[in-house]
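Q&A log
Question type: sequence-to-structure
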Amino acid sequence: MNKTVLITGIHGFVGSNLIAGLKSQHTLYGLDIISPQVEGVIKTFEWDELNKIPSVDLIIHLAGKAHDTKKQTNSQEYFDINTGLTKKIFDWFITTNAKKFIFFSSVKAVADQVEAEFLTEDMIPNPKGPYGESKMLAEKYILKKKLPGDKKTYILRPCMIHGSGNRGNLNLLYKLVQKGFPWPLGLFNNSRSFTSIDNVSFVISEIIGRDIAPGIYQLADDDALSTNELIQLMAISQNKKTKIWLVPVRLIKALSLVGDFLHLPLNSERLKKLTETYVVSNQKLKIALGIDKMPISALEGMRKTLDSFKK
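Response status: OK
Response body:
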């Protein structure tokens, strides 16, 4: 059934990919800080034009300030955008005829590091830093609001989303392999969850089209990957030989501290991102959707993303 959907942050990476997956089945409107029109979207509005947006069935709130690994973002900016805009659009949602509100939070709203075997929805949130804290404040604002019985809210906590048009650490790694540089972090033994944009689109389509129980859900691929596995996949994607060096961990950590001081590409924050173990359970979401596994495997999704880097 065709639904009228409003997507905030429509010009971003996730928004652009959702358009491709939803435009053939649903009527789409956009909301962003700028309003260039997008193919497949009826009209894009700016944030001061909420009263001009026509009636919609559902709101997907993507707009937010991404985690800045270079730490160049003023802390208040996270709260102004991640918390402030969420409050604004959720308050508007309450006044409209829209029945469903999907908020893209983050696993970082719960934990900056995963001490247990894997992260689950029932863990007590303990975010570290303004990014995770601002997302958690937004979640709390949504949850404390009493809604009419016909309205439902879904808080999705994705781990790192990747796909066509992806920017960030994956691109940095890919370019290193492309230029023939060896990977010096082979001695770091880690395992990390990712989320394919195809799995994101699948989950959104299911929430739009079915009567899924509202609540908080972590969004991740079924299996985790290590950074060494990523390097191997990148080398295979480029028909190159895998170059992984076993440089002592202490030396790498010392170099990352130098990177903090000199603002080099390898700093302690990026080293943590590249080598941390951060495994996220998606079991609650799969139970709600009535599936045994996500439609796209971790390996398949990552291969598809890496292939898109060639274009």
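Response note: The chain is about 40% helix and 15% strand.
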